[in-house]
Amino acid sequence: MGWGQENREADAGGSARLGHRAQRLSRRSFLAGSAAGLGALGLGGCVTSDGTMLAEAAKVYGPMPAEKFPIPAVDISKVDPKYYRRTVRYETKEAPGTIIVDPRNYYVYRVEGDGSATRYGANVGRDGFLWSGDAYVGRKSEWATWTPPKEMIRRQPEAAKYARGMPGGLDNPLGARTLHLYQNGAYTLYTIYASSDPESIGSGITSGCVGLLSQDMIHLYAQTPVKTKVVVLPA
């Protein structure tokens, strides 16, 4: 799959890859084996000091106690500041509302129109599991049940205990919100999901899915209707 649209972010910061840590039987190891607006919360505008930026990020990534499963604050010291949510200049011919995934630079954009976009830091597919092309949001889920694919169970037999599904919750790999990606009426098995692992942002750990911090994923999910176009750029 490919695409012919040119996109360029005016203040692109280049790519970075966090070090890989030893795999363990945990929410993150399951993720590694399986196929998450403008305004005050956008971290937009001028940042006068590192302290100001960190204080604003602490508000954006604070706890969410009203959720069905209360979400703790993100340890922002474990996230490179360039991956904090913010509003950026972004040139594209895609319509407002379109989601653009840039796996090379570990970013997800929501096109806002007027040459701007909301940018989120992301984790993406690891080597051998990257893909590109156009898709769309075929359905949306809150605190979804996660069922490991048969291919994953073969690679990681310890996941077999969830063959009938893991109920939603903080330890569930899909997290608080999930956008399920479709092509031509068929589910691709790829998702944009909510991650509670701040150290994963800016790295390739999944089998093609794209993860945002839970607070970012909830922010994106609320603005994304079913049928929204998703463009995944080549890595």
From TrEMBL:
EC number(s) from the headed UniProt entry: 2.3.2.-
Q: Where is the composition biased (Basic and acidic residues)?
A: 1-11
Hey, which pathway is this one from?
Cell wall biogenesis; peptidoglycan biosynthesis
Residues in L,D-TPase catalytic domain copies: 97-233
Task: Give the source's domain of life in one word.
Answer: Bacteria
**Would you identify the family this protein belongs to, as annotated?**
Belongs to the YkuD family.
Q: What is this protein called?
A: L,D-transpeptidase
